[in-house]
Records
---
Amino acid sequence: MRLSGVEIRWVEMPLKSPFRTSFGTQTTRQLLLLRAVSDEAEGWGECVAMADPVYSSEYLEGCADVLRRFLVPSLGGEVDGVAVAGRLAKWRGHRMAKGALEMAVLDAELRARGVSFGRELGATRDRVPCGVSVGIMDSVPELLDAVGGYLDEGYVRIKLKIEPGWDVEPVRAVRERFGDDVLLQVDANTAYTLGDARHLARLDPFDLLLIEQPLDEEEVLAHAELAKVVRTPICLDESITSAKSAADAIRLGACQIVNIKPGRVGGYLEARRIHDVCAAGGIAVWCGGMLETGIGRAANVALAALPGCTLPGDTSASDRYYAMDVTEPFVLDDGHLPVPAGPGLGVTPLPDALDAVTVKTEWIAL
Ligand SMILES: CSCC[C@@H](NC(=O)CCC(=O)O)C(=O)O
Ligand SMILES: [Mg+2]
């Protein structure tokens, strides 16, 4: 198919409540939505970069710039989803921007072909169990109220954000209040060092599913050292940027589990390759989240339905973060979300809802 151009849409979604991690507090999710217009169909992509380079080196305006000047102009002529990565390979890095563009082209192609994202990626289920990510709170009682609420809503797994000073005590409190059967894990977003190994081992008695990205994203060997001290399985997030980096991390013993985030790794096709590399290595994977709108959420739920995704992902319902989504909301049903079955993403933005959160649009003609 041939693209006539790509629309970049700056979107601002107010969060229902502040979301605090070890690298800061978010009250509004600023993100880019891409609309790829081709001679066969239109497709949507979501760029998960944050407004500031605090989760990774990418940031919203940087993504808009690299899309405008380098990535979109590289997609002239005949193109389809699988061709995008090769066409963009000459531009180094910028995985979130590339992933969003590939997603939009892939969505257009799949809509034209009448194939769902789930079928294209190899989904084996039509609904997926959902976990929820719980931010750092001002007090343990506030945390327990939040966790109780999510368990009442039916979430099958609780993930607690941790940082030095907020780790053992909140985990112990959740275990004491909700018991040993709740699936529980923690995410440090790189907040610790190898010198904290003995302290992190104090989490071992709480039977956590995993400790996510305790150390800096570049500390792959240090994670392997940490795994010799901490009994709880190590899961990597920020460190895993491609199938190659996943294979290396597994071989080095740096992780027993991998959080796959399509935006972080350059798109859903690379995400599937990571899934396949991990499955070959006996490594469990799950689909992470970047507070996506229903656009990215639809694709994430499709990815979460792959056979190697044996742990609940951060694929929460739309109302975890947003009072109103830009698509029909994803609603939790018995702790699960349905995998969209329609062509492409299977969802499209609701024009009025999308306009209400759009702050700017830019058309990039090809
Ligand atoms: C703004 S924090 C985004 C990164 C974080 N994501 C989550 O905690 C899940 C967010 C979600 O539910 O989409 C992670 O490191 O895993
Ligand atoms: Mg994480």
Note: The two ends are 13 Å apart (CA to CA).
---
Amino acid sequence: MANQVRLGIVGCGVIGSGVLRVLADRKGAWEGVQLAATHIAVRHLERPRPEYVPRHLLTDDWRIVCEADDVDIVIEVMGGIDVAHDVVRHALENGKSVVTANKALMALYGEELRDLASKRGLFLRHEASVLGGIPVLHTLHTYFELNRVQSLRGIVNGTCNYILTRMWETGAPFAEALQEAQALGYAEPDPAADVEGFDAYYKLQILLQALRVDTHLLQTEFVADGQPFVGAANSGKPLATLTKPRRGIDSVDAAQIEAARRAGAKVKHVASAVWGEDGIVHCTVGPQVLQPDDPLYFVDGVNNAIAITGDVVGTITLIGPGAGALPTASAVLEDVLQIVRESADKG
Ligand SMILES: NC(=O)C1=CN([C@@H]2O[C@H](COP(=O)(O)OP(=O)(O)OC[C@H]3O[C@@H](n4cnc5c(N)ncnc54)[C@H](OP(=O)(O)O)[C@@H]3O)[C@@H](O)[C@H]2O)C=CC1
Ligand SMILES: N[C@@H](CC=O)C(=O)O
């Protein structure tokens, strides 16, 4: 791949605009690599956009982005499942490597799409799909070879953490805190995915897949195209199961938060996975009351954190911004630059 790298971007909302803002601020240049957007797909061509979005590149046909000769890498930041699945498949089938921030897509179809990319000798990267700006997939892929991971435990949804923090700190009503999270660009296009715990559940699955855990039983809870989604079994891998039903923060009320606050505790939305001796990875996703001696207690606002326990290293905790335009654009563009470097290394 040449040092001039041409990007096709599908979606120009919070994250797509964030990517374009970073490209504009840096004038597209990174140590010998020049990145430039050449096509940008949106749904509403007439919608007002920030000044750093080059309007002449806009199209309302994502196929143009996936097929264009002057696109080297496609960035999928439109969200949703079915069309996004078509976009990523179509891009790969047209010889483009792909970077996506889409958790639902990667939780449900990650294995299929990674296989397709690998068969075509292309890259499919999705660091931004988990924990926003925190390089957790990079860490899991490049570090945990020696160590056997024994558990994961984290705050993996920025919107829920922001809402719970605002309710705890200021007594803000749930609806008001959610509106703030939406205005700040943290929430999903349909915020039910955040507050009902689906987003955290998708992210937990992606983390487990990165650690070669079979998540197909978790996937049966999801619905794609109106049908229950049943993934293929992968024998030989540890199998993840939910030990109790997934919960979001929609069931947490102000009185519970106030009671926790008076007792010096906090309510947090926590995802966890514990590798059992029985070959089962026992998972939970839901609100928990945390005491100040819990390392997740001090993770507030839009921040996320993940504590990864390995049998040799002990517990490593990564903390950072879990949502928002710039942290997520950072993860997207770090993936792009890694693809460029690895393509150059391959020759
Ligand atoms: N917000 C965040 O903090 C984070 C988001 N993500 C993920 O990034 C993705 C994008 O999120 P976000 O930017 O917040 O979402 P937005 O709703 O802000 O943006 C979605 C964009 O996709 C475009 N779009 C929707 N459907 C189509 C279509 N059929 N063809 C072309 N364009 C389409 C929309 O067009 P138009 O503008 O015309 O409506 C819009 O520009 C999601 O997968 C989300 O989960 C990941 C990490 C953090
Ligand atoms: N809606 C998500 C965005 C990032 O993944 C969140 O709030 O964590």
Note: The domain at 136-322 is CATH 3.30.360.10 (Dihydrodipicolinate Reductase; domain 2).
---
Amino acid sequence: MNTFHQYNETDPLKKVIIGRYQGYRAEEAYVEIVNEEQKKGLPDVQELGPEFESFKHHLEARGVEVLVPQYVGKFVYDQLTPRDIGITIGNKFVMSNMVNQSRRYEAAGIFPMINNMKGEEPAILLPPGNDILLEGGDILVDKGNIFVGISQRTNEAGFDFLEEVFGDRFNLVPVYCRSLDEGKNVLHLDCTFNPVGRQHALIYPDGFREVPGIIKDEYQWIEINAEEQAELATNVISINQDTVISRDHKKCQRVNDEMKKVGIEVIELPFDAAPATGGSFRCCTLPLVRA
Ligand SMILES: NC(=O)NCCC[C@H](N)C(=O)O
């Protein structure tokens, strides 16, 4: 399990980095408010610990190898959402070029783990130039496609870079997310779209400027409403095609029930603190191996 491997969002999760809560907001002087959710207030470390420990326990109980980033230092106040630091695509790993200054050194916390992995050389790719912006929460690899959210955090240059590197092996699909100016708070693509099960996808169609044809054709939709989207109901993590971990939260209940109706086992865990910073289970994980 030492080779980067990810071809589908719902393939069995074998090795994953999850968020680090220890050291969160250790020094207030370095806190940067980076999204709309955080303007409403930030959670306590006391709330984070039990939720992340329980999450880790449930992943390990299902046979997933779980890694936690090293502590970078007090100037990186938030290491809760490793998803955005990079993305495993096929047998390669793409480092992100992140928008927010306070997130840019998060890579240091996962680098020893990434560097320890094998892959198709060059296995670790760095986007060239500062104009290319991309974050892992905007990128979904599934069924031969790479869906790339053009969002608050990823731009068209980020899409072009991925197309150049992977266009010979994958079908690259740009997905234009509605912006704050258009009245929608879609931080990343995974806040509005996420494949689950064999052929289903959780989707908040109003989060898109236009839903790409392939998302209409290839997936059976479980639609999310605005209130559910605000609680990050799409942002579940698949352990495999039959199992997801989702929030035990009243605004996620209907969506969890819909997934159960189509035969997906839903492990519902209390998880309120990380979502108050803008990220739920998908954001709090960075898969290295799904096989
Ligand atoms: N994929 C995601 O939507 N990640 C959530 C990121 C939350 C983090 N605090 C951020 O705003 O960058």
Note: The helical segments are 45-61, 106-115, 156-166, 213-218, 226-230, 253-261.
---
Amino acid sequence: MRIDIITIFPDYFAPLDLSLIGKARTSGLLDVRLHDLRSWTHDRHNTVDDTPYGGGPGMVMKPEPWGEALDAVTGNAPSVPRLILPTPSGAPFTQADASRLAREPWLVFACGRYEGIDSRVAADAAERMPVEEVSIGDYVLNGGESATLVMVEAVSRLLPGVLGNAESVAQDSFAPGAMDNLVEGPVYTKPAVWRDREVPPVLLSGDHGAVDRWRRDEALRKTARNRPDLLRRLTSEDLDQHDRQV
Ligand SMILES: CN1CCN(Cc2ccc(Cn3ccc4ccc(-c5n[nH]c(N)c5C#N)cc43)cc2)CC1
């Protein structure tokens, strides 16, 4: 997969050199290219913003640099990317979106700042490529960079060979499969006793059926406590299926 990121803060993406994503880039599994939007400005101050038409607080990102940047990054290529526009007003980004985007060969992320990007940029791009306005949550950030980091991590970890343990992806929270939409239950490792707190004995029993059932019970318990909204999505059939599983 190729991922292009256009931003006025390329250094924001230094974390993509680290850990599993860094290794995936080194191995060639993932091709991440960073682009400084100011490379497509032509004035002495490398201006990327201006006051909003119609008045209002803050500044809006000018369309010209974005148009030239997207033309340069996506033009003269044998294929067409999917353009992802992080924005507070976007559609909620979910695990299903991460799975869907992980199947795309080429993504371009446009990281806005200020009050956002002139709306004509998305409209113009949509004449040449699919465009998605996406939000990572109902809270306000200062720009699209953090959201892009989140989405790049959520998508990249699903690429074959990146995690190196297909099993863990399959057992992820929100991953499709048995008891969909349950959050993770508690996890433990050595020592068996720590500050007088014992690991639940079932986990030391070697009874894999009992361990599986205990984990599902704990996941249900934690979901009811922290995410009752997810439980409401579970049908009675799902819950019956849980009870049948040993
Ligand atoms: C008067 N009011 C009128 C409404 N605005 C709304 C507003 C507009 C821009 C910004 C800053 N910003 C600029 C680009 C950009 C991209 C993503 C996100 C973002 N925030 N939260 C998410 N989940 C995000 C994602 N994904 C924020 C961004 C913040 C708030 C405030 C002022």
Note: Residues 40 and 72 are 9 Å apart (CA to CA).
